[in-house]
Each structure stands twice: as C-alpha cells, then as structure tokens.
Amino acid sequence: MTLNILKQHKIGLSAIFLTWFIFFVPIISGEYVYFLDDLKIIYYPIETAYAEFQHNWQLPLWANEFGFGQPLLGWGQLGFFTPLHLIMRALYIPPLALLQTSVVAYFLLGSIGMYAFLIRRNLHPTAATLGAIVFAYCGFSIGHLNHVNFYTSTMLLPWLLIAIDTLIKKPTMRRASALALIASAITMSGQPQVVLYTFIAATIIGLALFLQKFKAKTLLLTIYAGGIAFLLSSFAILPLQEFLPQTERAAGLPMAELYEFSYPPYAAITLILPYFFGDHAHYFGPKGFQELAAYTGIIPLILAGMALASWKTYRNERIAALALVLGGIALALGRYSPIYTYLVENHYISTIGVVGRFVFFFDIGIVLLAAIGLHDVLAAKTSAKKIACLIAGYATCLIAGYATPLFLIALPAYIYSQYDAAFAERFWELFKFSNASWWLIAAGIILPGTLLFLKIKPERKSWLLPALAAGTLIWYGWDYNPRIPASEAKNPSPLAEDLMQFREDTDLPARLYAAEHLPVTGNPNVAFMLSEYISPLFTVIQPIILPKKNVDCLIVPIQADSEKDTQMTVTIQSGLQGKVYLETSVSSGDVYKNTDQTFCLPAEEETDNLFIKFSSTHDTNMKVFTTSSTSDEANLYFVRKEHPTEKQLSQSIKPLSVKYTAVFPSEVDKENALMVRHLQATAGASSARWIGALSIRPYREFIDMFLANDSEAFDGDGVHALTKYKTLVDMAGITHFIQLFGYEQTNDPMLAAGYKLVREADIGNSLIRLYENPIAYPKAFLSEHAQFIAANDEIRTHLTNPDYNPEKLIYVSGPTPPDISPADPSIPLAASAEIISYEQTRVDIRVQSNKEAFLVLNDASTEQWQTFIDGTSVPHLQANTIFKAAQVPAGDHIVSFRYYSPAVHTAKILSLVGIICIILTYAKIPRRNKKA
Are residues 445 and 505 in the same domain? Predict the structure, then answer.
C-alpha cells in the first residue's frame, strides 16, 4: 500500500524533497550552520542546559545559569519535551548539531504534511505540491527559521489538520487520541504565542471541514481530544501559568510595545520583494526585517486571487482561507488597522508582543487559496473547455487573480511613494530590465494566465508553476538567515575554560557581565571631535597604523548633517602620493543612514605605509570623527590647499587621529567568543545582563536600572553603570567580566578600577579579555540588619544611595513583614555563612552568628521558593527586591532554600492520567467481525 502511494505521488514528493534538499544543502553537508540571533543566544544555551538536565534524569524546574536564576520549565521559551529533541538528547547529539538537525527535519516534515493534507482534500497533486512548498518556504516560515520555538509548532500544523480531517471522516477514539497526541506535541514544543496562533488557524480550517460533514460524535470526540491534549501538555501549560503573574507581562505590555512591529501597508511590497528595504545586515525598513517577513512570491498571490473567483467547489475551504487572510491583514497592520487599535485601546489585547507575527494567518490563508487556485486552473482538461470557461467566467478568475497583488502591493506602494522620495526611487527601480527581481516578477505574472492556453498535456505543463514558485522562494530565502561556517560556530570562546574551571573549583557558577566594551571611567564618545566639512579646501589624510598586516577593511565613522546629496572621495594609497589601492565615492545620503562606512583593501596588498584620504572637489556636508593622537606616527594631516607641496603637507600635521577600526579575518563568532546574553550557560556561568522575553519582573527591573541591561551604560555625566553602582555590582555577586580589547588600545580602565585580568586571547580580529572581580560578594553573605519595605521601586531608590552598605542593611519584602529586632550597634556582628550544598532547586547553608542576622543568597527568587531553618519552615523573604533571604536567629543553624512548584506537582498527575488514557485507547483490541 505504501509503495503504491509513493508511486502515485512520486513527482510531487520528489519535487518537495528536491526543494528541501537544495535549500538546506549547506546545512545537510555539515559545512555551514544556522547560528543567528535567538537560535544562538537563547535556544543553543537552553538546549545545552536541557541536555544536562535530561542526562541527569531531572526536570528543568530552575536553572541558575540563566540570569540570576529562572524557572526554565515555566519560561515559555523552548519546550523541554519537544519530541525530536528528547530523542536526540537521549542519543547525546551535541546541542548545536541538534538544532541544525531539528530545523531541516521539521521543515521536511511540515512540507510533506501539507502535501498530504491537500491530497486528502482531493486537490490535484501539482496544486498540493505548490501549497506544500509555499507553506514551508514562505516569509513567515523562513523569517522565523532561527526561532526554534516557532517551527516546532507551525510545522506540525499540517499534521494537526490531517488528524482533524481523519477524525471528521470517521470519528473514533483512536483517531481522537491521535489528534490529542499531535496537539500536545505542538503545545509542549513551541512558544505560547505561536502555539495559540497554530491552534487558531487549525480551528478555522477544521471548522470549515467539520461543517461539511457534521456529526455530534465528532464534536464529542474533539472535546475529548482537547481534554487529553491538555492533560498531556500540562507540563507546558501549568508551570507557565504559575510563572506568568510574576513576570513583566503580568500587568500587560506598554501601549507602545503593543504597536511595535506593526506591518505598514506600503511594506506589502516585500510580499514579492523581501529585500526591498535591505537585508539582515543592512535594513532600513519598518521594524523589523525578520519579524515582518511574509513574502510568498507573485505566483501564489495571483493563484490565491483566482481561487476567490470561483465558489463551486471547496466553498468552505475558500471561506476559511479568506478568513485567515483578512484576519491576518486586519491584525498584522497593528497601528495602521482600526480593528487592532480598537482591540488594544479597549484592552482586549494587552499582552501580545510583535503584532507583525499575525502575518502567519495571512500566509496560511494564501497557501490554501493558491493550492485551490491552481487546482481550478488545472481542472479543465481540454482546450475547448478552457475557452468555454474563459468566456463563461475565467475572465473573472483572471481579473481577480491579477487584481489581488495590485490591490495588496502596488496600490499601497504607489500611494506611499508620493510621500517618500527614497521609497519612490527604490520602487521605480523595479522596472529596470537589469533588475533580476523584475524578471522573476514578470515570469510570475505571465505564467498563470498563459497556462490556460498552452497546448501541452496537463500532466506535463502543470509543474511549471510549482517549479517557478519553488525557485523564487529558494532565491528569496537562501540568504534570508545568514549561515556561518560550522567550524566557526563550533569554535568555543577561548575564555570558556576559565569559567568552567571556576565552577569546578568553587562548585558555583560564575556570574558574568559581558559587553563589547567596558570602560568604567568616562564616556569614550566624549573624547571624539568632528572635523570641518570636507571640501576642496579641506582634505583629511590619516596614516593607517595597524598592529597586524592581514587587514581586510577599515570601518570609519562619518557624519552627514543632512540627506542633501553631496559626494566625498575616499582614497587608500601607499604614502602621501603613492599607488592608489582604493578610490571610492561616498554619498552623504548613505552616510546619513549609516554613520559607519566600510572601506576594504585587495587581499594581496601590503598594509605598510598606507594612508586614507577624505577629499572632495565640491563642498560637502560631511565630517570625520577625530580624537587625540597616541603617537607622532598616528598624527593626521589637515590639508587646506588643493595641490599642497611637501612643505605645506608637513606643516599641516595635527596631533589628532581619525577614528577608524580595522577589520581582520577571523574564524571566531564575536558573540560566541564574548558569551553574550545566555551563551554563558554553555560555559557553566550565568548572565548578569540580558534575559529572554519572559523573565522575573523584579530581576528585569533591577538589571535595567543598575546594570545597563541592553541600554546605554553611561549616564548624563558620562559615568558608567559599573562605576556608579559598584557596590550593587559587587553585592550581586558578579564575579567575572568580558570585553573586546582593540589591538591599538594601551590603557585598560578595568584594571585601573581594580578588576583582575585572568586571561587575554586573540580571536583574529581583536583581543578579548576576561577579568575577575576580587571583591564580589560571596554567593551567600550575612547582613546585620534589615528594613521591610513593600514597594520594590521604593527599595531601588534606597539602593541608589552612594553610602549604601549591604553588609549593614538590606531591604526585605515578602507577603508579610518579618518581626525584626531593633539593631544594637554596640554588639558587632560576628557571623559566617558557608554553602554546604548548591543544587538547582535546593541550596543548604550553614550559618553561625552571635546575634540575629539576615542571610542573603544572591540568586533570584520567586513565590515557589521556600525557606527552612533546621528543617522547620519559616517565612521566605526577598532581599533588595530580587535575592533570596532569610531571617536567622543567633547560633548555629542550617538554612535551606527549596524550590517547590505546585503547578509541576499537578502536571505530573495530569500527564500520568493522560498517558494512561492514551495507552488504554490504543491497547483496546477491536472486536473481530464474526461474519468474516
């Protein structure tokens, strides 16, 4: 039976497999990997932690390697129980390889699933192939390829639809259980927002199928499947539900954030030209490049429009698809949509971030309509019938098909071009015959209409559209998510061993603050000055002093005061009058958009005695950044003559230098080397800065205010956060710092501030330094006194006091005020705190004190943490808004902090019940037919 199915659909499946193989061949070959954005800084570290938990047969209830500690199971980032990931972890596949295998496997699974679903709906195999390819490689899927917790849900949508369709056609307990298993796999794997969108899309399509064949039994079994799915996925739902009220999402998102990533109507041009506003590295369109990805290419849009012209067949499917398209548009437009703004203003929507992700509905609707539209085109088998169809109504079909992209794309783009000159110029560039994208669009416009009249057998000509659509989507998506060499991604930070050694020596994770630059005294930007305007009477010439010869490029910051079109010539040459290696024109319009300009040298040229010159034959509105020179060799020339003599050149030397950065070849990923964000977890350390999209609210507020989370580290007086809040930095137990250190740098403010240099490494294009904080507070310390303050913002205000001393006083909060004895300054505190056991969900500390004191464990706390002293439960406190704390009486005591989640306890019971129900369903032996 299976062989017959494969033979029957060999062309369609071969096309799907070939598209998949071509698209992912760099990954399948093992030469390249996806190592971009969230895949690198969130999912890779999470999978590293998950592997350790799974190999130790533990649930990831809490992980101290993320921030100051986070409840991973309730975090809502990536499901621990993602089925394929569970299997690969059990096989000890490394996390990076696991994620590459995951993406190629799920995309193949999703495309085959969509093909199977459309075939089940009796669509032509060619139409099913088109739908499968557009589904897997459309903008939403590829734009979120690096979001592992997206595709682990969305790529299971077709299989969920198959399960729904199967249940509708023949409602049985086993089919309902299959539906429950797929639904639970989606819930257990994905990000809650995308899981919700997946189920909404499935519900709309499933309802259309259900109304075609209504049965009460089907409805009852669907409810049963939903109940079993909830039981099976309770490990994903209940811990998140428990954690959510303690996060920054509890009170809803700010209004401005609810409108972020709105999809402006003019951006619909990216449905057929995804790089219209630039690419991942250089993007100048509405926020943001990947979040607003919705491209399908012109062919699916035309076919979708053609599908709306006929309602004789697949009426319910067309209605469902149209509902998805219109709903997706109405919501994804965000601030540009009266429907969405009404829902936000009336607080019907308060927590959904990234409104542009509603394009998921739009893309799914286009997938279904395009497949149905192509099926309609192929339905008429003879030329005579086609002509009759054209006369009878195919004209309407063609009009609808071609009007759809015109209405969605061309009209908004034309209107916006009347108000934005840069957009208009870019828009009209599309009509240049030298533009390769124009030919793709032209072919996509011509082919669907002419397909009706080509005198070729349907089984031969029908593959022209899927082939062109597949080729277009591969062309668009090939570099949408940049890949890097596998060797580069697998090359760990040269400083990881030191952090791992620290953990091995202390049995505690290092707490790391990583940034590209960590100047702790003075704002480095204050030292830079702007030159005069480059003009015929003002030329700047700068000697290029490099510590290494293998320079690739120079990055030079240039300022343009306006977008007024002026031109400057940048020349790189040997000596002041020698051989020219590079001469290029720089436009003020480009500089106005991007200050940092890159100038590259031919690889074979020497880097000795090179000069870079900024000149112009006309007045410009551009200046270069300069700073005090570090040596006579680095002094620049301010030339005020058009053709200066050697004497005049020598007289124009100034003790200044043009600011520039050399770019050297490197096989090291900079973020990986710095271990930014959550990458610290791969070295057994934890991040003292950025945390994921869902985090403990007091923690987020603390690092935003005191540790310059992802914001400017300098205040208005040019004082760095590490200097201004040095006491809080130490109190938070930040043990290590990492920064890049330029080859040309001579002084290191970190050393001057008292931090100890542990290691320096050369990563090819820069040095990188690891420092240790010798006066960081120990993980557990004692404070002499405490003051109860209920409001966290009031506590943070007290913490800004320059004289604040955590060893003398901490500010505690909790459900009830503790009974705090009056401080007796005549008796100095003589106490010690020794950690005797440090685990993820339990920390035991031996405390010895001559009087009542307050123990602080500088890890984050939530409501699920409980405190025990000598085995007896006592009130759990929070110190300085975020840390675990306990009020300890005088004497010798064992203080134990323990994590207990009622949600996890309930989930264990519910999951067991769900598994038993599934086993009983499939273990039931069907009765034999006695007449057989």
Answer: no
DSSP state of 248: T
Residues 6+ apart with CB under 8 A from 826: none
Q: Smallest Cα–Cα separation from 557: which of 614, 521, 597?
A: 597
Omega cis (within 30) before 578: no
Q: With cut-offs at 50, 70 and 90, classify the pLDDT of residue 32.
A: very high
Strands of 567-574's sheet in order across: 580-587, 567-574, 610-615, 539-544, 636-639, 653-654
Q: Kindly state whether residue 745 falls inside one of the protein's structural domains.
A: yes
Instruction: Classify strands 661-663 and 553-560 as parallel, antiparallel or unpaired.
Output: antiparallel
Query: DSSP class of residue 801?
Result: -
Can you say whether the dihedral through the CA atoms of 301, 302, 304, 305 is positive or negative?
A: positive
Tokens 């904080």 correspond to what residue? 773
User: Is residue 33's pLDDT more than 50?
Assistant: yes
Q: Which domain holds residue 199?
A: 1-247
**Please, is 880 exposed, middle or buried when counting C-beta atoms within 10 Å of its C-beta (0-12, 13-18, 19+)?**
buried
Q: Domain ends where: 417, 450, 480?
A: 480
Read off the pLDDT band of 224 (50, 70, 90). very high
Q: What are the Cα distances from residue 526, in Å, to 399, 706, 720?
A: 61, 22, 13
Distances in Å between the Cα of 261 and the Cα atoms of 191, 288, 331, 599, 788 are 18, 6, 11, 33, 41
Between 346 and 860, name the one with better pLDDT.
860
How do strand 686-687 and strand 511-514 relate by DSSP bridges? parallel
Predicted model pTM:
0.88
Question: Residues 28, 103: contact at Cβ < 8 Å?
Answer: no
Q: Are residues 239 and 255 in the same domain?
A: no
